Give the backbone structure.
Amino acid sequence: MTGTDAVLLPNLHALFTVLREDGRAIVGPAVRNGAIELVELDDAAQLPYGRRTEVEAGTYRLRPGDPRLAFTHTAGPQSWKQVLHPPRERLWSASRAGDDVGVTDDEPAPRRLALLGVRPCDLRAIGVLDHVLGNGRRYATRRAGLLVIAVNCTEPGGTCFCVAAGGGPGAETGHDIVLDERADGTYLATPGTAEGAALLGRLSAEPAAPDDVEAATGAVRAAATRMGRTLPETDLRTLLAARRDDRQWSDVAERCLACGNCTMVCPTCFCTSVTDTTDLSGDHAERWQTWESCFDLDFSHLHGGPVRVSRDSRYRQWLSHKFGTWHDQFGESGCVGCGRCIAWCPVGIDVTAELHALHEHASAGPEEAACTP
């Protein structure tokens, strides 16, 4: 699909109506608990109109914005990972009645969902999860039938670095429709798939003029020059492999709380743990899967104890996997540059600053190791 297929929408109410007519539940951003969260929406009026976000290392605040605009915020604490790979789910349950034991698999129920307001960084993150988890039955059930409506970014936040991470503020692939929010509160809607084109064809919308498309393209192009963060211009895989004993890891360990916030808000971290529970009678048992963090001391526990006992070794593992060995496993980086880990770190540790420091140390030449295993 190209910009010549784009149409102009005066608002998003008709889009919501058509999605509901198709039997789709709509998940999108809304203001909840002092942040932009992802929730099921009944009406376009629930979108976060008039809300901007102020983000920096260890800082996230909602600020007043243009009441006509719904997408002037940056990434919130939640990502679409929670829809495709829930933070907690029951895998099976078993009950005993006399000598009989019955086991019930808790398969996720297929749902017709529309994901509305997916940012380009999160669009890439969904693609990363597809590579990592796409062969799993439970993930595939949730992924099947999703309609993805992306929104291009024109106001990157202070912690954004999608361009340096290999992406950009414009949606490229993986969406059915992409929206460009215009200054007057109207929308340029461009289909990305045949299903998206058919949906837009059911709306009373006028075709977009070439000037409309060019103005939207120019706004996204300008946003790419206003990123709040950068990454060092070097091969990060090689850098991280060569700096395993760098003193920077000890410096991080003095600040890091090992709380795991960075892994919880990351849209691509996928690790889980499994817990079996039973009632006091022993007649009922359940198995639950929950998100896990490589910052947890027991995450690397083997016979005899944990492998990574120090905070610097656990931070090094996370950063090295995200930007280095992820390539070896999945053929791409595990980071999409959304900046959530920076904003939601309670002590403001900045992954881009740590990588720049490692690069500066490497450029300065050999140095004495200061990192514990």
Remarks:
- The chain has two domains: 3-223, 236-364.
